[in-house]
Amino acid sequence: MNSLRSVDDHLAGILNTVRTLAPLEVELEQALGTTLAEEVTSPVALPPFDNSAMDGYAVRAEDVAAVPVTLPVIDDVPAGDDRLQAIGPGMVMRIMTGAPLPAGADAVIPVEWTDAGTAQVVVGRSAAPGHAIRRAGEDVRAGDVVLPAGTPIGPAQLGVLAGVGRRRVLVRPRPRVVIISTGAELVEPGMPLGPGQIWESNSYALLAAVREAGGEGYRAGIVSDDAAGFLDQLDAQLVRADLVITSGGVSMGAYEPVKEALGPLGTVRFDRVAMQPGMPQGFGVVGEDHIPLFALPGNPVSSFVSFMLFVRPALRKMRGLPAGPTPTVRAVTAAPLRSPQGKRSFLRGVLAPDGTVEPVRRQGSHQLAALASANALIVVPEDVTELPEGANVEVIPL
Ligand SMILES: Nc1nc2c(c(=O)[nH]1)N[C@H]1C(S)=C(S)[C@@H](COP(=O)(O)OP(=O)(O)OC[C@H]3O[C@@H](n4cnc5c(N)ncnc54)[C@H](O)[C@@H]3O)O[C@H]1N2
Ligand code: MOO
Ligand SMILES: [Mg+2]
């Protein structure tokens, strides 16, 4: 019997091995979910020119100091107007939101404060200089850093990239993750089940978890319990993988294709990790390019929990984001709970808005529906075997 390896050692080994992906230039449309690999500055000020914040009239504030007052409207300034006109004393121009402020004007009167006249306008309310004007450079000055390297690119970041005129951007791409399920009993969902068979579910859960963690997942289908067939499939898939996840075939059975195929390579280490669920699993590198490979256990809850604890941090590192143990939040137990001695357990629980967490009733590592009824993993340390109701715990929100 080999001894157990701690969760922390296993994660440290993973994070020491996994490398951040090389930067790649992509079109803006491909940048969502990637991480910025360059510092982005703005070539121009934003806004680039003084402009109106409202639809109304560009005025000299002193001309509307005493109201009501009737003034001639000498022209219109629509957004995009490039005539660079000026107004003189006692004149106004009709102006639209985003249109450049005419020289000579120092305030904008919203149309709601007027009779909306077109040849002349009655202004019913005065405004201080600067009213409803957006100044050049108020958001960004020319040369300002708008996004530092290392920023995860979400919708707002994409918007600002376009807003400073970028078409292409240097990023850490989304890692490409190939998922291979092993097991002679597995059948694709939608196909009829024969005796002894079950529908394959791990690759679907793992694919979704990969996407949520910022990767691009590919299901490479099901491989039967045959080490040679597994190696063939792995070889065929490596060309499109930055990372490989396998599920099943890593424990003590007579037909464990992943362990059988990868064990002899010497580059993938199989361990019994001191955790529940997820004890038997492997990690290492494969192929000429040393692609990281996670050999996750087949039990559905075990593979999911192992993903959260080990694959997610690895994906963060590959994406160029700060990587460490999966973050937890504090909660208080709403019921007593039990946990095995010597293993860190990750009980499936329901975290309530009041900060209490209750373990779900079924905690088996095959009980996928029970996992689906939970929204948190309750972390119970290795040396704790029982906790009363009302105890402080850390939980991983799902
Ligand atoms: N004698 C021992 N037996 C087992 C041990 C042990 O220490 N000694 N460990 C148990 C633990 S803990 C786990 S976890 C599992 C790990 O099993 P494997 O990784 O070898 O996976 P399989 O044997 O292929 O399958 C286990 C279980 O999961 C189901 N499965 C597998 N793949 C899928 C999939 N893609 N979709 C849905 N369900 C899947 C499979 O049918 C089995 O029921 O080993 C224990 N045994
Ligand atoms: O450790 Mo296994 O992953 O519980 O069922
Ligand atoms: Mg097995």
TrEMBL record:
<comment type="function">
    <text>Catalyzes the insertion of molybdate into adenylated molybdopterin with the concomitant release of AMP.</text>
</comment>
<dbReference type="InterPro" id="IPR005111">
    <property type="entry name" value="MoeA_C_domain_IV"/>
</dbReference>
<dbReference type="InterPro" id="IPR036688">
    <property type="entry name" value="MoeA_C_domain_IV_sf"/>
</dbReference>
<dbReference type="InterPro" id="IPR036135">
    <property type="entry name" value="MoeA_linker/N_sf"/>
</dbReference>
<keyword id="KW-0501">Molybdenum cofactor biosynthesis</keyword>
<protein>
    <recommendedName>
        <fullName>Molybdopterin molybdenumtransferase</fullName>
        <ecNumber>2.10.1.1</ecNumber>
    </recommendedName>
</protein>
<dbReference type="GO" id="GO:0006777">
    <property type="term" value="P:Mo-molybdopterin cofactor biosynthetic process"/>
</dbReference>
<dbReference type="Pfam" id="PF03454">
    <property type="entry name" value="MoeA_C"/>
</dbReference>
<keyword id="KW-0460">Magnesium</keyword>
<keyword id="KW-0479">Metal-binding</keyword>
<keyword id="KW-0500">Molybdenum</keyword>
<comment type="similarity">
    <text>Belongs to the MoeA family.</text>
</comment>
<dbReference type="InterPro" id="IPR036425">
    <property type="entry name" value="MoaB/Mog-like_dom_sf"/>
</dbReference>
<keyword id="KW-0808">Transferase</keyword>
<comment type="pathway">
    <text>Cofactor biosynthesis; molybdopterin biosynthesis.</text>
</comment>
<feature type="domain" description="MoaB/Mog">
    <location>
        <begin position="178"/>
        <end position="317"/>
    </location>
</feature>
<dbReference type="InterPro" id="IPR005110">
    <property type="entry name" value="MoeA_linker/N"/>
</dbReference>
<dbReference type="GO" id="GO:0046872">
    <property type="term" value="F:metal ion binding"/>
</dbReference>
<dbReference type="Pfam" id="PF03453">
    <property type="entry name" value="MoeA_N"/>
</dbReference>
<dbReference type="GO" id="GO:0005829">
    <property type="term" value="C:cytosol"/>
</dbReference>
<dbReference type="InterPro" id="IPR038987">
    <property type="entry name" value="MoeA-like"/>
</dbReference>
<dbReference type="Pfam" id="PF00994">
    <property type="entry name" value="MoCF_biosynth"/>
</dbReference>
<dbReference type="GO" id="GO:0061599">
    <property type="term" value="F:molybdopterin molybdotransferase activity"/>
</dbReference>
<dbReference type="InterPro" id="IPR001453">
    <property type="entry name" value="MoaB/Mog_dom"/>
</dbReference>
